Amino acid sequence: MFMDSPQMDRNPSPPPNRDDETGEEDDAIGDTVYSKHWLFSTLTRLIQMVTEQDSEQGQGLTELSDELEEELCKVWDMAMDKDVAGFLQEFKTPDILLGVIAKSRNPRLTEICIGILGNMACFPETCVFISQNDGLGAVLLLLLGDSDPPTLLETCRLLLTCVSQPDVSPLWLQRIQQQTATCKSLCFIMRSSTNVDLLIKVGELVDKLFDEDEELMKSWLSRPTSETDQDQDKDTHQDVASALLEAAVQLRKESPKALEAYLHALQLLTTIDEGMQNLVSRMCAVTDEGCGVSLWKMVCEVVCEDLCQPDDPPLILQEQKALLAPALAILSALYGNLQTNISSELVASLLRILYFDNENQQEVHQESGEPQTDGKTDEDRDVQLQVLAEIAAELLSTLITHLPKDVVTELLKMDHLTEKIWVSAMKTMLPQHNASVLCFINTLMEVEPKLADVIKKECSIASESNEPKPQPV
Length: 473
Known about the structure:
The protein is mainly α and about 475 residues long. Helix content is about 70%, strand content about 0%. The chain contains 26 helices and two strands. It has helices at about 25, 35-55, 65-80, 80-90, 95-105, 105-120, 125-130, 135-140, 150-165, 170-180, 180-190, 195-210, 215-220, 225-230, 240-255, 260-270, 275-280, 290-305, 315-335, 345-370, 385-400, 405-410, 420-430, 435-445, 450-460, 460-465; strands spanning about 285, 290. The chain has a two-stranded antiparallel sheet.
């Protein structure tokens, strides 16, 4: 490991003396069966090993016995218990583990120490106690530059846990903002790692940081590139949008479900001017084209090829809503800023999403015995599904307004796009997107008048448009 900070260059302090707690009744930690004496002895052995190896070799701890590793892993598991976490806090264990990390040159030991702290941090009180340790906070952010994937995974898990706790989140956000190397370290991991678990956790951390602190997100986007960065290989260049995209492309090969945090983080970038400028102006190292164009293509592939397929049941929306909502929001934000062609596959996917949503609503109303009322919001409806339907309708209304005839022809050749799907989707868009629907029907009249008439009839557009206007008296 790399720890050479003067502040951390010391041996761990011993745990408090517990010689007076020798009775069996006093030996149990809280309501658990775990032994105070055993825990105290394990931590003491760890300190002794670190001290001995450091004095003998002068380079910190490099070897970890199998026996001690097994016992420390037990402590790691035990720390998930609230009583044990509180007892470890009383023991000043974060200080002990910080000293061990500072002296450790053994990746496995460092991983275990951070893992113990990560489990302790799951509880608000111990999380506050851990977070108030400025030395530990500095070391954890420095550890993001480590080269050991398990250590990085546990470090990101611990940081995510702390940032997710409202009482200490502002403190960690301030530290991360001040530690300029954090963004570069996370970007490097996203660009270079092939470890799926690590990429998922880094994505969740970046997403949480962006969600909690818009100013942090802006600073990561606007930070100027240093001369040092320009001299280095482009893969180490700090560009958070491009790094997020590269990691997402890597994760898509493993599991589309793992993309959720990355799609949400990228969607957050599109909500601010700096983010859109970054996406439109930056080049993507993987594809050698604009980052926004690459993002558009990747998200279109995810929506059209991975999610909500023709042979899926409508209920699939419930499972995929957390992925579809940010994906469609990204496409909606990018479309107005990019010169890109409209694919028939994307339009078909949007039609299918609106149809599936309508089918799900009808099923819910049938089960409850209540009639469905078109154009009204169901108070008991799933909020995420409602948002997804609104985003899909908004994007589809934009696309069909500019839909070329050849794309309409391609859509009509798709067997799975039945008349029922067309009618259902158009109904869902009314009356909010009435102008777009009318514009599409005019185009459809030139390509397939029969379907256009069916849609007009089912959506009551014909009667409204042909009804004679009342004459003034």
